[in-house]
Design a protein that fits this description.
Number of helices: 10
Number of domains: 2
Helix content: over 70%
């Protein structure tokens, strides 16, 4: 074969091989990109699933701790029992809450946040200061009675743990008094009632709720109906001074 023909034949063969390699390369890259995309989507889905599972587990552990603390007491309840009650691994308590004390704080926060939400959702502003104070006292009485088992755990623990009291004050009584004071200000917006007086009244509402909703009926075993009537009468008498 002439030399020129050989050159042409080699060039033709080279061109065809390049086309085949190009097609093969493109075909091999496309599935790889698709696989990487699928892996990325799977990774995102896995992370979302983990977040959701953590929230569910945390809620289960907090609920289990509340039940066991109320029935067995804080000191007698172990993290193993809480984990078993929640259906979770014991190590999650230390990972999520750093131990039993952190779990107790999470339980307290869960209670207080729900209480503030319930107050503003369930109670509309009353048309007068007296009616507003009365309905707030009734709400506090009911709340204390419903949380009596929780308080049986919390109050003794606060006596032996000096760090718990200040924490409770920050996430419990103080924010609650502020919420109540804001409601009282809204009711009295057409009256010239000093803000400091409304602040004092907001704390008195919380005190009435604790004394007549927990101490008298639960600790002293007074008749709940009588203690409620006495709390309402005291509230009406207080409002007359404003």
């Amino acid at each position: 074969m002439p030399r020129q023909g050989c050159v042409i034949l080699r060039e033709s063969f080279t061109d065809e091989r390049s086309k085949v390699e190009t097609r093969t390369s493109a075909g091999s890259h496309a599935p790889a990109a698709t696989k990487r995309g699928k892996r990325a989507v799977g990774l995102v889905q896995t992370r979302v699933g983990r977040v959701r599972n953590r929230a569910v587990r945390e809620e289960a552990l907090v609920a289990a701790a509340g039940r066991l603390f109320a029935s067995r007491g804080y000191e007698a309840t172990t993290t193993r029992e809480i984990a078993s009650e929640a259906g979770c691994a014991e190590g999650l308590i230390h990972r999520y809450f750093r131990g039993k004390e952190g779990l107790l704080l999470a339980l307290i926060r869960s209670h207080t946040s729900r209480e503030f939400l319930d107050m503003n959702q369930r109670l509309r502003l009353a048309p007068s200061l007296e009616e507003e104070v009365v309905q707030l006292v009734e709400f506090e009485l009911q709340r204390m009675w419903e949380d009596r088992e929780f308080l049986k755990v919390l109050i003794p623990r606060a006596h032996v743990d000096p760090n718990l009291g200040p924490i409770l004050n920050r996430i419990g009584p103080m924010p609650r008094a502020k919420t109540i004071a804001e409601r009282l200000k809204a009711v009295c917006k057409t009256k010239s009632v000093p803000e400091e007086n409304l602040e004092v009244l907001s704390h008195l509402i919380g005190i009435l709720g604790f004394v007549f909703g927990y101490m008298r009926p639960v600790v002293l075993r007074d008749d709940p109906a009588k203690t409620r009537a006495l709390a309402i009468a005291t509230a009406r008498m207080l409002v007359r001074g404003f």
